């Protein structure tokens, strides 16, 4: 094979596409099917190709093939179900085959649509520019076929265009408005370019969860495009078949595929299992350890005869999570109820999948005691003649815990032939590392925290230590008060009181300290990104249940009242306060009981906790803060959680797992997880940033925790500078004098008469909006601390002015292009940040457009709408003209499918008006009157011309205009369509044919398709 040719900078998409087709054809051995942009009837199931494979390769007879294809096409074409349900049903037919019978009373046979065992026997093919019919036709760049089944789709972009655009394009194709039925058999959806490489997902995956492929133990080849390398790795025949067969699952309404660490982790575990070797899989918190267990358990179950898998956890949350994941993917798993129940199930041949919770039997959360009770319960439950059935594989979750060795020894005695696999999300302690490896075996696979951050699987954590002053203003008075209250007690009694309470200085300063922390957190909620916008929320870790209650009580006096909750293991009962009331004020227990009971209201503790957790995850704007002690610091995943406040001494695994509560992905505006440390757990911030073996993580090997925490202010300053550099580079080509008209020309097209100019510059505008949003977030995150971050007063003022300038540019471009309303939805949190940090006179005027486009404002106010424009636009006649023209053009483009004849006329009028202005054949006042009149006509086609009274709906208007003002035919066609149309008729061939038949009764055959396309564009049908 010849060396790859150098790739030109900024190679055009079409050239990239041709190169990638060559890669699939020449290197990967796919058959090239050709350019299918004019080929009719492209479908998810290419019947002819699949029939040929089933007949010539699989050897099935024609009748069997016909029946199998009928079932497959019926499932794939079921438009009454969601894409998830259709995809799940079709996937089951692909993976397990189609059960068909050749006649009444005959045994069913399974028709295998794909040869999973022998990948090379399948037919792999690629086609480009595949035009697919839908409510609105679309043409994916590349489609991958296995035996005629469309299982892969690739959207390509040139190197200068963000891969995000390709991802959004691929996602939009799955919309019912476009070509959703084409995704019936789709397994991998991909997007790529030569700078960012390849991102992949499966059907209906939101953009934030798209993955980047990273081949293990293979260095990037500088002579190749990262796109080509990733495609060659992910889409080679064996790998594609394997991913489709072993790494696709349907989890409680969401289809998922593997991250590269999950794939290589499972592959490494498979090798170990085949060799009967145990070991440890260390995949960092948040990288999908539970699904790795599922995929490995499924593989063991399907590939090893008589195999059974038992998963052991030591936290209720983990036990419930494991059960939920397995049940969610359709793999029934049995949760044991007691030691005797577990032993009984192991003594039987079923079920094949079990999970067991260690502390359930001891009734304790304490590791050592719970494990001892669990082991004792198991041993006493063993009946005489006990012989565990099946080939047992024991998954020990969170195997890093110190009791795992003891548990392993006991389980090994009961199940001597079982193979043990340890799973952990945290690095192993130096003192436990050798012991754990002696117990479970060596590391089978590792995926460290810094690797997860690099791959975008989890977020970087930014660390900030905060010092709360605890000095007392009058310590002698506190001592005097204490002496008075303990007067009459013996010295021994006084000593006992002091031993229980500490000094009154500590008690009183603690109250002051808690108040200061509450004020500090409330300030963050009013000033920090995500907390301020309600998109993110926070967890506060308290050092005791009593202090958690005091925190809650203090928060009730702040704006967070009704938006925070305590979640701990405490369950208030009357026994708690028995004999507690001395008549001399509330004791700790009384106060704790009262606060907790008031918070619960009429709910049980379990009901309240469940509701609070659900609201915290699903409605972060309403449940903004959870106060915890030990609960929820492991096994609780809330993507919205962004800030973790630490007011408890944590170390080692507890600290590692706690801080990883805020590292989950959650949209573009969550760029980091924030750790706020009130206990100075890392002691010297400087040392903790440079030497992870000091203080809090002293028990870990340095290399195992590198890259975990980053100095927040250092990172925030770098993030701000990077954002400024990016937006400066984007705007650098804008012509001098770099005024409003210059920016409008650059981002909206140089000529308002160019109908394609707005569309062609759309990627630049989108980049501007995204860069501005990132810049505002970066600035807001550091605005109150510019001095601490190293900016002097002049530099800070210069940065503020520059941020405000680009925010104004963005607003003006939004208005000038007609994008304003669309982009308001794109960035819901931006208003909070702009209001808080960079409010400016020019941007205040923008508020008049909050719920309206410029065209809507013109319809309402006429010439007065121009006064609502920003100063930079309304002060320049050229800018005003181009702004209105672009807005009118955009509306015409958007509405043309609804009434082509009418909007074609409007488009011509706009062209003529622009030409008249350009040749200066019209003065500005006359031009303004004409353009405002045209804007009114475009916005209100119903009132644009005189029509008969029976033409009284937008649908009839569109038909009337198209049919050359033939009112009787327009009314007749409208009535005929309404008589036959069914729900969800778009994209359903049978239902569409009925509508076409109704149209055919009133127009010539040559016009049926044109009228049908017009009808498809009408919202009222």
Largest sheet: 7 strands, mixed
Helical segment count: 41
The tally of beta strands, per DSSP, is: 25
Rg over C-alpha atoms, rounded to the nearest angstrom: 33 Å
Which regions contain 5 or more consecutive residues with pLDDT less than 50? 362-366, 684-694, 821-829, 840-848
Distance between the termini: 57 Å
Strand order of the largest sheet: 1-4-5-6-7-8-9
Class from secondary-structure proportions: alpha/beta
Quick check: average pLDDT?
81
Q: Level of helix content?
A: 40-55%
Beta-strand portion reads 5-15%
Principal-axes shape call: globular
Oligomer: single chain
Question: Top keywords for this entry?
Answer:
alpha/beta; seven-stranded mixed β-sheet; seven-stranded parallel β-sheet; 41 helices; globular
Describe the structure.
This protein has 1021 residues and is of the alpha/beta class. The protein is built from 41 helices and 25 strands. The protein is globular.
Topology, element by element:
Blueprint: H1 13-27, E1 31-35, H2 47-57, H3 62-76, H4 83-96, E2 98-100, E3 109-111, E4 124-128, E5 142-146, E6 149-156, H5 163-172, E7 188-193, E8 197-201, E9 211-212, H6 226-234, H7 237-246, E10 248-251, E11 254-257, H8 260-274, E12 279-283, H9 289-303, E13 307-313, H10 316-328, E14 334-335, H11 339-346, E15 353-357, H12 358-362, H13 367-380, E16 391-397, H14 404-414, E17 419-424, H15 430-440, E18 443-447, H16 449-454, E19 460-465, H17 475-485, H18 491-501, H19 504-527, E20 537-542, H20 545-555, E21 564-567, H21 588-600, H22 605-618, E22 625-628, E23 641-647, H23 652-659, E24 672-677, H24 685-690, E25 709-711, H25 712-731, H26 740-748, H27 757-760, H28 762-780, H29 793-817, H30 820-826, H31 830-837, H32 841-844, H33 854-861, H34 871-874, H35 877-895, H36 900-918, H37 924-939, H38 954-962, H39 967-980, H40 989-1000, H41 1005-1016
Parallel strand pairs: 1-4, 6-7, 12-17, 12-18, 13-15, 13-16, 14-15, 16-17, 19-24, 19-25, 20-22, 20-23, 21-22, 23-24
Antiparallel strand pairs: 2-3, 4-5, 5-6, 7-8, 8-9, 10-11
Helix pairs in contact: 2-3, 8-9, 11-13, 13-14, 14-15, 19-20, 20-21, 25-28, 26-29, 26-35, 28-29, 28-31, 33-37, 35-36, 35-37, 36-37, 38-39, 39-40, 40-41
């Amino acid at each position: 094979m010849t060396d790859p040719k150098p790739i030109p900078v900024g190679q055009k998409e079409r050239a990239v596409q041709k190169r990638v087709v060559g890669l699939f054809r020449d290197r990967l051995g796919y058959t090239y099917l050709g350019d299918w942009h004019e080929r009719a009837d492209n479908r998810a199931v290419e019947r002819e190709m699949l029939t040929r494979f089933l007949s010539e390769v699989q050897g099935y007879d024609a009748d069997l093939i016909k029946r199998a294809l009928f079932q497959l096409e019926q499932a794939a074409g079921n438009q009454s179900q969601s894409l998830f349900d259709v995809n799940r049903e079709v996937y089951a037919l692909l993976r397990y085959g189609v059960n068909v019978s050749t006649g009444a009373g005959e045994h069913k046979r399974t028709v295998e649509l794909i040869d999973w065992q022998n990948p090379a026997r399948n037919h792999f093919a690629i086609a480009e520019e595949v035009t697919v019919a839908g409510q609105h036709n679309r043409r994916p760049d590349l489609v991958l076929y296995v035996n005629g089944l469309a299982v892969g789709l690739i959207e390509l972009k040139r190197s200068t265009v963000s891969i995000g655009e390709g991802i959004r394009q691929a996602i939009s194709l799955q919309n019912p408005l476009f070509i959703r039925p084409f995704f019936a058999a789709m397994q991998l959806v991909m997007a790529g370019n030569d700078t960012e490489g390849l991102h992949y997902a499966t059907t209906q995956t939101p953009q934030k969860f798209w993955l980047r492929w990273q081949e293990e133990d293979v260095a990037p080849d500088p002579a190749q495009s990262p796109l080509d390398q990733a495609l060659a790795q992910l889409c080679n025949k064996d790998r594609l078949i394997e991913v489709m067969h072993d790494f696709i699952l349907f989890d409680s309404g969401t289809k998922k595929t593997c991250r590269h660490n999950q794939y290589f982790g499972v592959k490494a575990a498979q090798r170990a299992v085949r060799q009967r070797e145990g070991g440890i899989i260390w995949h960092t918190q948040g990288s999908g350890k539970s699904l790795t267990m599922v995929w490995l358990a499924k593989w063991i179950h399907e590939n090893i005869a008589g195999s059974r898998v038992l998963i052991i956890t030591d936290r209720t949350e983990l036990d419930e999570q494991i059960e939920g994941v397995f049940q969610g993917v359709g793999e029934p798993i049995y949760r044991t109820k007691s030691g005797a129940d577990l032993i009984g199930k192991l003594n039987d041949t079923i079920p094949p999948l079990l999970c067991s919770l260690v502390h359930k039997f001891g009734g304790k959360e304490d590791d050592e005691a719970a494990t001892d009770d669990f082991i004792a319960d198991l041993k006493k439950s063993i009946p005489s003649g006990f012989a565990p059935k099946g080939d047992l594989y024991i998954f020990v979750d969170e195997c890093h815990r110190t009791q795992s060795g003891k548990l392993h020894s006991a389980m090994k005695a009961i199940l001597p032939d079982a193979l043990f696999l340890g799973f952990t999300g945290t690095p192993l302690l130096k003192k436990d590392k050798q012991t754990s490896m002696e117990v479970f075996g060596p590391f089978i696979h590792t995926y460290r925290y810094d690797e997860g951050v690099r791959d975008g699987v989890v977020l970087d954590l930014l660390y900030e230590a905060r010092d709360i002053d605890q000095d007392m203003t009058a310590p002698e008075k506190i001592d005097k008060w204490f002496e008075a209250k303990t007067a009459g007690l013996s010295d021994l009694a006084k000593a006992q009181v002091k031993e229980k309470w500490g000094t009154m200085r500590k008690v009183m300063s603690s109250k002051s300290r808690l108040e200061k922390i509450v004020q500090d957190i409330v300030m963050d909620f009013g000033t920090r990104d995500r907390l301020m916008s309600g998109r993110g929320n926070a967890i506060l870790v308290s050092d005791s249940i009593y202090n958690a209650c005091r925190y809650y009580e203090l928060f009730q006096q702040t704006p967070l009242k009704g938006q925070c909750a305590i979640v701990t293991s405490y369950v208030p009962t009357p026994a708690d306060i028995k004999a507690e009331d001395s008549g001399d004020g509330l004791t700790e227990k009384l106060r704790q009981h009262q606060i907790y009971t008031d918070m619960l209201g009429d709910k049980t503790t379990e009901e309240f906790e469940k509701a609070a957790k659900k609201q915290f995850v699903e409605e972060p704007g309403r449940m903004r803060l959870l106060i915890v002690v030990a609960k929820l610091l492991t096994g609780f995943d809330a993507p919205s959680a962004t800030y973790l406040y630490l007011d408890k001494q944590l170390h080692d695994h507890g600290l590692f797992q706690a801080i990883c509560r805020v590292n989950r992905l959650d949209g573009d505006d969550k760029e980091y997880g924030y750790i706020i440390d009130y206990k100075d757990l890392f002691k010297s911030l400087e040392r903790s940033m440079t030497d992870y073996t000091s203080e809090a993580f002293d028990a870990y090997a340095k290399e195992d925790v590198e890259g975990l925490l980053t100095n927040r202010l250092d990172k925030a300053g770098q993030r701000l500078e990077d954002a400024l550099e990016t937006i400066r580079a984007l705007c650098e080509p804008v012509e001098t004098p770099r005024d409003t008209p210059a920016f409008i020309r650059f981002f909206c097209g140089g000529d308002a008469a160019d109908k394609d100019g707005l569309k062609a510059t759309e990627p630049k505008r989108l980049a501007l909006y995204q860069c501005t949003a990132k810049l505002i977030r970066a600035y807001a995150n550091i605005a109150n601390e510019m001095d601490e971050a190293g900016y002097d007063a002049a530099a800070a003022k210069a940065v503020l002015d520059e941020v405000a300038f680009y925010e104004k540019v963005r607003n003006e471009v939004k208005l000038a292009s007609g994008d304003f309303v669309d982009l308001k939805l794109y960035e819901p949190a931006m208003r909070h940040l702009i209001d808080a940090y960079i409010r400016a006179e020019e941007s205040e005027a923008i508020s008049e457009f909050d719920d309206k486009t410029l065209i809507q404002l013109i319809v309402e106010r006429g010439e007065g709408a121009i006064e609502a424009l920003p100063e930079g636009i309304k002060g320049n006649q050229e800018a005003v003209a181009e702004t209105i023209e672009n807005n009118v053009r955009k509306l015409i483009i958007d509405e043309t499918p609804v009434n082509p004849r009418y909007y074609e006329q409007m488009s011509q009028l706009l062209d003529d008006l622009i030409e008249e202005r350009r040749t200066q054949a019209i003065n500005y006042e006359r031009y303004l009157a004409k353009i405002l009149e045209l804007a009114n006509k475009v916005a209100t086609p119903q009132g644009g011309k005189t029509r008969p009274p029976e033409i009284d709906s937008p649908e009839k208007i569109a038909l009337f205009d198209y049919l050359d003002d033939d009112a009787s035919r327009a009314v007749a066609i409208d009535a005929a369509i309404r008589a036959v149309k069914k729900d969800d008729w778009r994209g359903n061939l049978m239902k569409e044919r009925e509508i076409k038949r109704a149209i055919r009764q009133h127009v010539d055959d040559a016009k049926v398709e044109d009228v049908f396309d017009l009808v498809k564009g009408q919202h009222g049908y």
